[in-house]
Write a structure and sequence with these properties.
The protein is mainly alpha-helical. It has eight helices and no strands. Helix 5 packs across helix 7 and helix 7 packs antiparallel against helix 8.
């Protein structure tokens, strides 16, 4: 399996979240805790649920590929951003010594770890390809080719997903 990327990509928050579930709340990183001034609870508390409901109604009403691409781009962007914070926090285990770091790494030498890496690959790939598509459409004023570019990026995404199955999962 991916022993070369295990040190960089596989170290992830699930190590800490699984341990935190066993211990209770004390293992969660500070940015997830409301009582420690965390950013995530503040965002969730202040999120306007009415606007979110209207957005989902709009998605259901306008079933166009571009609308799905819009929502997928937003959701994967948030997911990748959360991963980045959790990834940096997890990498901080290197400062706690080799044993702590090896323990964090060992959590991803499991089926769950490999599936999690694959889902991360898919989120990053779809966000990247859609971002490139949006950039091309905006900079070169190719709005007429927007739908074709979306299908091209989707085809490239499928190729990445298939290669990912063979390199990460199998």
């Amino acid at each position: 399996h991916l022993h070369t990327t295990k040190d960089s990509c596989a170290i992830f928050c699930s190590v800490h979240l699984l341990d935190a579930i066993e211990r209770g709340d004390e293992g969660f990183p500070p940015f997830l805790k409301e009582d420690q001034g965390g950013l995530l609870p503040l965002i969730l508390k202040n999120m306007n649920m009415q606007k979110l409901k209207e957005g989902f109604k709009d998605l259901i009403k306008n079933r166009y590929p571009g609308m799905y691409a819009f929502w997928i781009h937003r959701i994967t962007g948030i997911a990748v951003t959360l991963f980045l914070f959790l990834h940096i926090w997890t990498l901080s285990y290197v400062f706690r010594g080799k044993t702590a770091y090896d323990y964090a790494i060992s959590k991803f030498d499991t089926t769950f770890g490999y599936i999690f890496q694959y889902v991360l690959l898919l989120a990053v790939a779809i966000h990247l390809l859609n971002g490139i598509r949006i950039t091309i459409v905006d900079f070169w004023h190719l709005t007429r080719l927007q739908k074709k570019l979306l299908w091209i990026s989707f085809f490239i995404f499928l190729i990445i997903a298939i290669i990912g199955i063979f390199t990460i999962i199998l």
